[in-house]
Every structure is written in structure tokens, then in C-alpha cells.
What does this fold into?
Amino acid sequence: AIKSQPMKNRLHYLVFSLSVIFFASGTDAQVINAFPYEQDFESFTNCGTGCGASCILSQNWTNDLGDDLDWLTDVGGTSSSTTGPLVDHTLGNSAGKYLYVETSCSGTGYPNRTANLWSPQINLVGTNDVQFQFWY
It folds into this structure.
């Protein structure tokens, strides 16, 4: 889940072997102004999985058309053997959804590839002590 809460300034970092960048898209119609804001991806439609899969996300979350890989919505484990979560953090069971990037293909993975995820615009004007949090 991704949350924004008026709490102490803390950031949790996730390191992949590929570049992961979160952007606030300047063209999205939706602007998040109410906090706390939380996105757990449970209402997203599952995507195809596997090497080179593409995905159309929802609720103004989008995959960048100019990068190399897509973020995919999934449940209950990824298509590659012994990788990915069997459960998500929100529901704590195999019915819970999450976003992931498939990087186990071609025997060597996908070195030097980028998977950009665009979020809705988040207006932080007038907010204090913002926290960005995600589970991995």
C-alpha cells in the first residue's frame, strides 16, 4: 500500500537491479488533495504476467510508455518460479493484489532496464510532516 500521512518525515527505500522511478504525472485529471491518501491496488484488474507483459493500470496510476518494462498487477505469486510474494501486505492472503516488475526473464533478468510508474498528482501544498510509505 502507498500512504501519505501527517507524521514524522521518514522514507522507506526499495532497491531493484533496475531503475524504479515514481512520478506525479502533470496530465492526470485526478489530483489528490485529501490526506491520508492510501492506495492498496486491491481494486486494480489483474494483468497478464510473464516476460514482456504489459499492463493498463487504473485510478490514474499509469505505466510510462517511454520505458522498458511495465509494472504489473498480480495476486498469489508471480509467473517466474520461487519469486514474488505469495501474499500481499494489505489482506495478508493470496487474494491480495500488489504491483511488481517481472525481472527474471532470459536467464539473466533485465539488467539496465527501467520501469517507471506514474501516480496521480498529489498536491502537498499546505501540508506538514508528510510521509511516503510502501511495502516490499
The radius of gyration is 15 Å. Residues 1-26 have pLDDT under 50 and may be disordered. The chain is about 0% helix and 30% strand.
